[in-house]
Amino acid sequence: MQPDSLKRVLDTCFLAKRITETLPELPQHMKPRHIHVLDAVESVRRQEGICRVSDVSERLKITMPSVTRLIQELEKLGLLQKETDREDGRFTLLELTEAGTECVRKHVVDFQEEWAGKLGSVTDEQAEEVIRVVEELWRTLPRRPAAKNRM
Known about the structure:
Helix 3 (53-60) crosses helix 4. The protein has a single domain (3-140), classed as Winged helix-like DNA-binding domain superfamily/Winged helix DNA-binding domain (Arc Repressor Mutant, subunit A), CATH 1.10.10.10. The protein contains six helices and two strands. By secondary structure, it is mostly helical. A hairpin with a 7-residue loop joins strand 1 (80-84) and strand 2. It is 62% helix and 7% strand.
């Protein structure tokens, strides 16, 4: 890829970030990251039967301390509950409450179904290519010490 093409891709990533920042308003005290955690818990539980904190960290590519903090916030909001794994007490299992399930239905499932219906000109193959490219950008991202103030 040429540097000019990479610049256009990165500009588009910033646009994608703006899209996610302007999604419909969430319930009071909820952050967009909360929805991502709830959706990850629901998705992992549906696929694997159980969901651990580490599963969410891996799925969302965020650190365990960040996931733990978000999970604690979601517990306080009554959207998520955790319990110690009966088979292996070292693990904490996550499950959505009824309110958490309703939140995922409204802010993820219903919203995405409605929006996907309006994207008739974008094929599933094109969506998969976008995913592949973004994942490759993430995989090859030059790792540098974290800056205090990044734009």
